[in-house]
Protein: Glutathione S-transferase N-terminal domain-containing protein
Amino acid sequence: MTASAPQLELYNLQGCPYCKKVRRALDDLGVAYETHTVPPARSDRTEVYAASGQYGVPVLVDHANDIEGMAESDDIVDYLYAEYGDGETPPPSGIVDRLLSRFF
Structure:
């Protein structure tokens, strides 16, 4: 990886609410990341499979912390806030998260 390559990569599907949750967390934290938009058909997601061993999205890769292919949006959001947050502000959850997902 080159020095200018982003440390975080997100495998993402347009219209996926779980991917949107992770993108919102990354944006909220102000963390730079590279997005890989994947095909809608799971069988065509060879790039996702190579990174994570599964075909679902979202999938996060964090080169700085040797995280290869973290799946599950809730786990990714918790990880991002723990690793890149201020240590005090928890990620949105419950009704707040549902409202943010609906309107943003």
Summary: The chain has a mean pLDDT of 86.
